[in-house]
Design goal:
The chain has 320 residues and is of the alpha+beta class. Helix content is 32%, strand content 23%. The chain is built from six helices and twelve strands. The protein is globular and about 85 Å long.
Amino acid sequence: MSRRRSPRSTSATDLLTTLGRLTAQAREGAELQHARVELAEALQRDMLPARLPAVPGLRTAARYAPSRDGLDIGGDWYDGFALSDGSLAFCVGDVQGHDVEAAAFMGQVRIGLRAVATTARDPGEALGLANDLLLSVDSGLFATCTFLRFDPVRWEIRSARAGHVASVWGTVDGRSGCTEDAGGLPLGIVAGERYPVTRRRLTGAGAYVLLTDGVIEGPCFPIEEGMAQVSRVVAAGAGADPGELAAEVMRVAELTGHSDDAAVLVLRHDGPPDVPAEGSAPRAVRTAVPSDVPPPGAGPRPVAARAPVLDGATAHRSGG
């Protein structure tokens, strides 16, 4: 019994045509991916600051890693700039979404914070003003953010956060912790939101690290494990060069298997000028006091009870 041949055998020409078509598709995909990488690099180069401010006794460094998912970039940022009173402002943040619209909104948040910080009395007021400004443009997006001011005379940090992940501190003698301070809603959700302010006196040498959730959360890590890993890194490297510490913290993102973009900002500080750099950090207490400048129409705020001791920095919390 003879086998029946197919009506038409595949010819070498057909195979070459198919191969050519697949090669062209692969080339188009590679070119698209290359364009996406260039877009990520342009974001880092043009929408993030080229330099960060520093003063004697305070060195700074930052790292940004774009998302691994092509155009899913643009949501995270960091910034640092000097204010007219001699203090330095720093912030990190994360915009909802990861696309061109999110990148544009990130630029609005960053510039908006710079604009309002020049007149705001503290970081809480700056976040409140930025929140109302962003709501006025009606973009429909929101952003989380931590904003702080470093006072080089008092050797003090004042910080506030809008729905953002905690920061991490570490001292040169190996201690570390997370700044689980009270905060407000993300920027761009509710008008008139108030943001509590926490004051920390830097009593010894160490590092203060701001980051976004892309560093500490991913398919392989719950956020608690990521934060614990960053705390260990900061404790071990609090006396290191700020650029090296920022790079080590960013490596935690590789452990999480993240696909989100990620940002890290490191403030590497000595102790106050009149305290030896290697001296141990003194006992520190966190309390809550009324805001210096309550918003119009707001009644007096209750004074909260004394909070637990926090090693490494003297902290006081007030309303923003």
